[in-house]
Amino acid sequence: MRVIHLIVGARPNFMKMAPLHKELSLHQDRYKPSIIHTGQHYDEKMSRLFFDELNMPKPFAYLNVRSGTQGKQTARIIERYEDLILAGDKPDLVIVAGDVNSTIACALVAKKLQIHVAHLEAGLRSYDERMPEEINRVLTDRISDILLTPSLDANKNLIKEGINTDKIHFVGNIMIDSLVEHQKKAELSNIFDKLIMNPDEHYALVTLHRPSNVDEYDGLKMLLTSLVEIGKHIKIIFPMHPRTKKNIQDFGLSNYLSSSKNLIITEPLGYFDFLKLEKKAKLILTDSGGVQEESTYFGVPCLTLRENTERPITITEGTNQLVGLNVESIVNSSLEIIEGKVKKGKIPKYWDGKTAQRVVKVLDEWFEKRNIVTENIGNTEILFNY
Ligand code: UD1
Ligand code: UDP
Fold it and tell me: How far apart are CA 284 and CA 183, in angstroms?
């Protein structure tokens, strides 16, 4: 029996780990997966809601780290995750996903305790070190023993960095496993009733949360001005991330938004409601990594409000476009799509709902090679609840 910790912390981690937890649980003869939740995201609508929707079990441990500066948050995760392992629950493998602070913090703890680490969604690069996520990605990949990539550009990036090809496995996009599994439930969402909207009405869907977009007054005001302008042509649905909401309030920009009747601002939405909105949108404007990918899967035009993306395949093969960070570019690019000039795309290879199966195959071979079979099945109680 191999004990595996699956680390989650922030919203996008849930969609990535749920399918892997489910798949590993189908093989209880050889795997015992436990979810460890760092508590980086903690609001009901940024965390618990997804456990219910994605049928994930209660976490084995909840580290309750909450928010903080980059250093403080990362340090709290390191301290508490190390405490958990030293208290007696030493896994055979730790799997981290994506690029959030919980990813690098837990990878670092495991590696220093001589526990092997697998990185799900390895190899993505924006080459923009101003982003905390890029630092998290590069460092996590550097210390991981198993690198599970979503697309072949990621393999190339890792090879360029001198990483041994034996460690690199192209498994596909695990977030799409969740999408494929829950698509039917998403169809049944009554989000349009909740928003008091006609489902046939055209709309743009917006999400924003990158510090580079929402942490400075001028940049945030520019983006809100763009939305108000676009709102003169199409309805906009904007489920607001807590970081963005806080900054809009702190900068005194709330009234600015209420000037547009076509702008519907909501709390962060549940996964099913959000997927339904993505699928039916005329246009998506975002700075989210996952939303760029999901819009490519749905074939919905996406304008990424960033200077770069670590997910270039959504541009080369999908429906994504980077758009200049100024009002004119954002509004003009949106109007082109509204008028019907849309970029066609295709679904990239292995974005097919079967990535978790491929990951388990890689793990089977990896464990077999090393002959790691342990009888430590861990404590089934929740050991830590800070
Ligand atoms: C984090 C990730 C980012 C990811 C995003 C997904 C890092 C460095 N950043 O960014 O890569 O794209 O999650 O959503 O790991 N807050 C709440 N309630 C919550 C969570 C956050 O109010 O449940 C507020 C707090 O004011 C907090 C702020 O949002 O300070 C930012 O949260 P944090 O987790 O630090 O970063 P995100 O912007 O969410
Ligand atoms: N998402 C959601 N509700 C929302 C916004 C996003 O369920 O209101 C989902 C979205 O479908 C995707 C994931 O959250 O699966 C993306 O997370 P986020 O944008 O927070 O993080 P990123 O991908 O940028 O790291």
Answer: 18
